[in-house]
Amino acid sequence: MKSRLIDTHCHMGDDGFDEDRESIIEEARSREIAIISSGVTPNTWRKNLDICRRYDNLYASIGLSPAEHQHLEELLEVLREHRNELIAIGECGLDYYIERDHEIRERQSEVFIELIQLANDFNLPIQIHSRSAGKYALDILKKQDAKMVHMHAFDGKSNLARIASNEWGYYFSIPTSVVRSPQKQKLVKAINIERLLIETDSPVLSPERGTRNTPSNLPVALQEVSRILRRGEDEMREIILENSCRLYKKLR
Ligand SMILES: [Zn+2]
Question: Residue 197 domain-assigned?
Fold first, then answer.
């Protein structure tokens, strides 16, 4: 399928899509939206891979939610077994919003470091979750010499994103919730335009709070980014598509 837009991060294996997944994916397909779908819990890894095999507009990423840090060994097995099917590793990273315990935060960092090294070994991009931990996640990535970095729904300081995108070449995806988030709107202006991506993070981060998000909402993020940067939507779409294909070389 020829794609006009890439939803660079979402979760099509989520239980919330069990009733109507087929039509949700077909709807995105009819709008020429390709989707990178991420499985981040032990019970969605294989489910996500199965779903991605069935559709030519879906690409699989496998990672580990920071809350699932105890499942690293099982994850490594799945990653090694399905290495050739993956477009990326992730999401993975740190979550300091939910986790306050120092020792568990340490454990999250250890798992994170292991996955950065694996992504480098596999020569794959890595998708990063860094809720309330943007600065810490960026520090670790830099120290570990991560090669192809995609920061998703970054909630850290804009200035950090400016440095990471300009000086380190890290990519940042703006979610559909940008329409209701002043922090994300500010972030758009800070990111190097050649490092800008968009995502839905479906089923969450919907443009409308409290509703289920789907990849077909992706144009909302494009429109808002175009408005903020005062660029034409077609021009912005081309730039973002080019960025997506530069980072994700397996996109067809
Ligand atoms: Zn996500």
Answer: yes
Measured in angstroms, how far is the CA atom of residue 128 from the centroid of ligand 1? 9
pTM: 0.97
Q: 115 has which bridge partners?
A: none
What CATH number is attached to the domain comprising 190? 3.20.20.140
CA of 65 to the centre of ligand 1 (A): 9
Total structural domains within the chain: 1
Cis peptide leading into 91, omega within 30 of 0? yes
d(CA 36, CA 53): 12
How many whole angstroms separate alpha carbon 148 and alpha carbon 142? 11
Range of the domain at 52: 5-247
- Of the candidates 124, 138, 133, the residue with the CA atom closest to the CA atom of residue 61: 124
Mean pLDDT over 81-108 rounds to: 96
- Say how many Å lie between the CA of residue 9 and the centre of ligand 1: 6
DSSP letter string over 110-140? HHHHHHHHHHHHHT--EEEEEET-HHHHHHH
Q: In whole numbers, what is the pLDDT of the chain averaged over residues?
A: 97
How many angstroms is it from 197 CA to the middle of ligand 1? 14
Residue 54 lies in a domain: yes
CB 174 within 8 A of CB 225: yes
Secondary structure class of 244 (helix, strand, coil): helix
Q: How far is the CA of 204 from the centre of ligand 1 (A)?
A: 8
> What's the gap in Å between 180 CA and the centre of ligand 1?
18
pLDDT at 2: 77
| CA 10 – ligand 1 centroid, Å | 5
Is 252 among the domain residues? no
In a domain, 211, yes or no: yes
